[in-house]
Amino acid sequence: QVQLVESGGGLVQAGGSLRLSCAASGSIFSINTMAWYRQAPGKQRELVASISRGGSTAYVDSIKGRFTISRDNAKNTVYLQMNSLKPEDTAVYYCAIQEAPRLPFRYWGQGTQVTVSS
Fold first, then answer.
1. What is the DSSP string of 78-104?
2. Closest CA to 111 of 41, 42, 37
3. Which end of the chain, N or C, is more open, meaning fewer C-beta atoms within 10 Å of its C-beta?
4. What is the pLDDT of residue 96?
5. Quick check: 106 pLDDT over 90?
């Protein structure tokens, strides 16, 4: 079985920081792109940031300059450093794993709540 264990969510005031972690374990043989998605109440899930195996990153415009995605391939772990948090960043954040190019993101974390108060 494959497990993605997320941690690092919580309640912070606007302007604060959080670092999310997601560690993959179990019967996963390859990891291509790792990504963070989020879903706010009443809104559809959106891709926040992604990072390829080679380290290429992509971000949604709303968080550019504030969030940084990184990965540790040896530990099968992806991180999301979130700085200058805004109330509109409040959402459940999910990590996801793509095993190979052009394949869907098969494995997903359980979600971690990030709440930013004003």
1. EEEEE-S--GGG-EEEEEEEESSTTS-
2. 37
3. N
4. 97
5. yes
DSSP-derived 3-state class of residue 1: coil
40 alpha carbon, distance to own chain's centre: 14
Tokens 């700085």 locate to 83
Q: Which of 48, 25, 23 is nearest to 36 (CA)?
A: 48
| Angle at CA of residue 44, ends 98 and 39, nearest 5° | 70
Structure tokens at 63: 């968080």
- Quick: pLDDT tens for 56-85: 999 999 999 999 999 999 999 999 999 999
In DSSP notation, 9-73 reads -EEEETT--EEEEEEEEES------EEEEEE-TTS--EEEEEE-TT--EEE-GGGTTTEEEEEEG
Both tokens of residue 46?
A: 């959106």
Query: For residue 32, what pLDDT is reported?
Result: 94
Check pLDDT > 90 for residue 105: yes
**Cβ–Cβ < 8 Å for 1, 105:** no
